Each structure stands twice: as C-alpha cells, then as structure tokens.
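Quick one, probably user error.
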C-alpha cells in the first residue's frame, strides 16, 4: 500500500452567496464523519487534519511574505487526509467519495 494525500479545496464565494443553515452544516459534518469512518474501517485512513484559516506564503527569491487567507485565490485548501491505497487509481476512487464535492469543491490527490 502506498500513501496519498487528499487536499480538500472549497470556493468561499459559494458560502458567501448562500450561507448554509445550521441543519445543512450538521448534515455536511455527518457526511464527512461517515466517509472518514468508512475509510478507517477499511484500513485506508493514515491521518489528516482540518486546516485553520490564516497562514502565510513565502515566495520568490526575495522571500516575499503574503498573509492568508489567500484572497487572491478562488479556492482555499481547507484540510487534508493521508490515505493508504494500492495505486493512484484507487486513491482517486477514494477521493470521488469526498463530501467537499457536494458543495462544488475539489480534491487534489497526490502521492506522498
């Protein structure tokens, strides 16, 4: 089994246009818990965390520092999971079950 990182991205404009109700947020949380619980039961979960808002980016030879959240971005990385999968195809299939997709987000799958 190889290790893969799933990076979750969401579009903050979606939430600004139509903020979710408390019931919608609870249902979304339950979808995440169910999905991650299934991965754990299958022995596919290797770790992960939700990322906090804020942070910094250091870039270029001048080592310029930009404060986050990164307003110039249309997507924000909101968290990640480390999973175990036989190959990139299996990791991609696992990524297709991610609840972030239901709200117009995306999952980036990268080998570790």
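Nope, works fine. Designed sequence:
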């Amino acid at each position: 089994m190889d290790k893969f990182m799933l990076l979750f991205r969401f579009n903050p404009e979606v939430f600004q246009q139509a903020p979710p109700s408390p019931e919608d947020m609870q249902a979304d949380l339950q979808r995440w818990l169910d999905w991650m619980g299934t991965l754990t039961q299958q022995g596919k979960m290797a770790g992960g965390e939700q990322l906090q808002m804020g942070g910094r980016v250091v870039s270029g030879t001048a080592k310029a520092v930009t404060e986050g959240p990164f307003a110039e971005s249309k997507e924000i990385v909101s968290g990640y999971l480390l999973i175990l999968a036989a190959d990139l195809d299996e990791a991609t299939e696992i990524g297709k079950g991610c609840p972030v997709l239901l709200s117009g987000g995306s999952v980036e799958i990268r080998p570790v």
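The mean pLDDT is 87.
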